[in-house]
């Protein structure tokens, strides 16, 4: 059983995706939050006694304390790995699809890289202020990953020209 301290600011998604509250997240605060989440993942993946793969890292699973310090929460889907084990396989895919690494969603292969993929999606959400699966993207982009990739490709083509 895990017990959490009371987090008066609720979860990160309650700030990111609220048109009024998101204004409280300036660039310095967003960077502070991202940096702390990255440090938390580093601890789970490398520094804790057992390697922990979260498998459901997303904005609603990041709690914010009184000073807006983030805490990774909801370890219900997490897997502990012993020794130097860095990956695993499961026949039961669980988690939130918009944040799942492709190899996990399709084949059940999870690893620290799966959490890194989820962190990347979370990073894009924090920077853009939009949900991964929001239907507000122009053209054919149906999620934040495709949107970021199309922007990257357009920028890369400008550099080549």
What does this structure look like?
With about 160 residues, this protein is α+β, with helices and mostly antiparallel strands. The chain folds into two domains: about 15-130, Transferase(Phosphotransferase), domain 1 (Orthogonal Bundle); about 135-160. It has helices at about 15, 25-45, 100-105, 110-130, 145-160; strands spanning about 50-55, 60-65, 70, 80, 85-90, 110. The strands form three sheets. The chain has a two-stranded antiparallel ribbon. A two-stranded antiparallel ribbon has the order 2-3. The protein is globular and about 45 Å long. About 20% of the residues are buried. The model has no long low-confidence stretch (mean pLDDT about 85).
Helix and strand topology:
Blueprint: H1 13-16, H2 27-47, E1 51-53, E2 62-64, E3 70-72, E4 79-81, E5 87-89, H3 102-107, E6 109-111, H4 112-128, H5 144-160
Antiparallel strand pairs: 1-4, 2-3, 5-6
Helix pairs in contact: 2-4
Question: What's the gyration radius in Å?
Answer: 17 Å
Large-scale geometry: globular
CATH homologous superfamily placement of the largest domain? Transferase(Phosphotransferase) domain 1
Low-confidence stretches: none
The end-to-end span amounts to 57 Å
Text of the CATH class of the largest domain: Mainly Alpha
Give the oligomeric state of the chains in this entry, treating copies of one chain as homo and distinct chains as hetero.
Answer: single chain
**Number of DSSP-assigned strands:** 6
Number of domains: 2
Major sheet summary line: 2 strands, antiparallel
Indicate the proportion of strand residues.
Answer: 5-15%
Q: Which range best describes the helical content: under 10%, 10-25%, 25-40%, 40-55%, 55-70% or over 70%?
A: 40-55%
Strand order of the largest sheet: 1-4
Any idea of the CATH topology of the largest domain?
Answer: Transferase(Phosphotransferase), domain 1
Keywords: ATP-binding, Cell membrane, Glycoprotein, Kinase, Membrane, Nucleotide-binding, Receptor, Serine/threonine-protein kinase, Signal, Transferase, Transmembrane, Transmembrane helix
Family: In the N-terminal section; belongs to the leguminous lectin family. In the C-terminal section; belongs to the protein kinase superfamily. Ser/Thr protein kinase family.
InterPro entries: Kinase-like_dom_sf, Prot_kinase_dom, Ser-Thr/Tyr_kinase_cat_dom, Ser/Thr_kinase_AS
Membrane topology: Single-pass type I membrane protein
């Amino acid at each position: 059983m895990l017990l959490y301290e009371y987090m008066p600011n609720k979860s990160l998604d309650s700030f990111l995706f609220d048109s009024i509250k998101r204004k409280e997240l300036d660039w310095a605060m967003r960077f502070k939050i991202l940096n702390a989440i990255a440090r938390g993942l580093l601890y789970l993946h490398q520094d804790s006694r057992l390697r922990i793969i979260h498998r459901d890292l997303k904005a609603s699973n990041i709690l914010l304390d009184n000073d807006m310090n983030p805490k990774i929460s909801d370890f219900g889907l997490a897997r502990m790995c012993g020794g130097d084990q860095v990956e695993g396989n499961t026949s039961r895919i669980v988690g939130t699809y918009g944040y799942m690494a492709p190899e996990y969603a399709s084949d059940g292969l999870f690893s620290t890289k799966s959490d890194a993929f989820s962190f990347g999606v979370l990073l894009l959400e924090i920077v853009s202020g939009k949900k991964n699966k929001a239907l507000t993207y122009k053209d054919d982009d149906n999620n934040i990953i495709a949107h970021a990739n199309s922007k990257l490709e357009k920028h890369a083509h400008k550099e080549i020209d």
